């Protein structure tokens, strides 16, 4: 698909002098050599490259590509924004409005904790919960507990996320990147890591 997009972009540039925007979601999944393939087209202006990632781009993106990019950090949604998102999803017909579902305050708090500020995750969780609910019913804490189990935001000391995060913290410190180091430190503390370990 990427090769096709590049070919179309070359044609657009050649015939019409127009640049093509190429959006790559989860760009961190591309290995470094795959990321290298974008460079000539970014450099010559054929492509306007936009990559989205949930990872720290300093660690996951090729340095050459990163040096030609602007990094925008999208902040997590706050409670008010998540509540507005959920209310719209529950009331609008193009969402779940026709099902006449409601969400208890405790249920909202539980969804909010599980979503961790991610609107897309919040909507996915709400949709999954609605699949378990009957029309006209309330999505309550019991239903959400059956859906989420113990998957709510928690630090998995000794698990894969722990080692990924501690590695990112160490790389940030070794790389003299105070902003990244502070980010990973705060993220681990927020997740419940023992400060003495850090």
TrEMBL record:
<feature type="domain" description="AAA C-terminal">
    <location>
        <begin position="98"/>
        <end position="174"/>
    </location>
</feature>
<dbReference type="GO" id="GO:0000731">
    <property type="term" value="P:DNA synthesis involved in DNA repair"/>
</dbReference>
<dbReference type="InterPro" id="IPR003959">
    <property type="entry name" value="ATPase_AAA_core"/>
</dbReference>
<dbReference type="Pfam" id="PF12002">
    <property type="entry name" value="MgsA_C"/>
</dbReference>
<dbReference type="GO" id="GO:0017116">
    <property type="term" value="F:single-stranded DNA helicase activity"/>
</dbReference>
<keyword id="KW-0547">Nucleotide-binding</keyword>
<dbReference type="GO" id="GO:0006261">
    <property type="term" value="P:DNA-templated DNA replication"/>
</dbReference>
<dbReference type="InterPro" id="IPR032423">
    <property type="entry name" value="AAA_assoc_2"/>
</dbReference>
<dbReference type="Pfam" id="PF00004">
    <property type="entry name" value="AAA"/>
</dbReference>
<keyword id="KW-0067">ATP-binding</keyword>
<feature type="domain" description="ATPase AAA-type core">
    <location>
        <begin position="2"/>
        <end position="72"/>
    </location>
</feature>
<dbReference type="GO" id="GO:0003677">
    <property type="term" value="F:DNA binding"/>
</dbReference>
<dbReference type="GO" id="GO:0008047">
    <property type="term" value="F:enzyme activator activity"/>
</dbReference>
<dbReference type="InterPro" id="IPR021886">
    <property type="entry name" value="MgsA_C"/>
</dbReference>
<dbReference type="InterPro" id="IPR008921">
    <property type="entry name" value="DNA_pol3_clamp-load_cplx_C"/>
</dbReference>
<feature type="domain" description="MgsA AAA+ ATPase C-terminal">
    <location>
        <begin position="175"/>
        <end position="198"/>
    </location>
</feature>
<protein>
    <submittedName>
        <fullName>Recombination factor protein RarA</fullName>
    </submittedName>
</protein>
<dbReference type="Pfam" id="PF16193">
    <property type="entry name" value="AAA_assoc_2"/>
</dbReference>
<dbReference type="InterPro" id="IPR051314">
    <property type="entry name" value="AAA_ATPase_RarA/MGS1/WRNIP1"/>
</dbReference>
<dbReference type="GO" id="GO:0016887">
    <property type="term" value="F:ATP hydrolysis activity"/>
</dbReference>
<dbReference type="InterPro" id="IPR027417">
    <property type="entry name" value="P-loop_NTPase"/>
</dbReference>
<dbReference type="GO" id="GO:0005524">
    <property type="term" value="F:ATP binding"/>
</dbReference>
């Amino acid at each position: 698909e990427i090769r096709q997009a590049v070919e179309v972009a070359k044609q657009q540039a050649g015939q019409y002098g127009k640049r093509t925007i190429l959006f790559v979601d989860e760009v961190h999944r591309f290995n470094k050599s795959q990321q290298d393939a974008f460079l000539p087209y970014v450099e010559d202006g054929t492509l306007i490259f936009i990559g989205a990632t949930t990872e720290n781009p300093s660690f996951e993106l090729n340095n050459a590509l990163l040096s030609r990019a602007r990094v925008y950090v999208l902040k997590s949604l706050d409670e008010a924004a998540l509540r507005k998102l959920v209310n719209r999803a529950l009331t609008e017909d193009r969402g779940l409005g026709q099902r006449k579902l409601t969400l208890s305050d405790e249920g909202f708090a539980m969804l909010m904790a599980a979503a961790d500020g991610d609107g897309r995750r919040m909507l996915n969780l709400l949709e999954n919960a609605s699949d378990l609910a009957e029309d006209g019913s309330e999505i309550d804490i019991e239903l959400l507990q059956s859906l989420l189990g113990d998957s709510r935001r928690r630090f998995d000391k000794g698990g894969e996320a722990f080692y990924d995060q501690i590695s990112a913290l160490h790389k940030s410190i070794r790389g003299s990147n105070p902003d990244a180091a502070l980010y990973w430190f705060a993220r681990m503390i927020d997740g419940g890591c023992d400060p003495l370990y850090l």
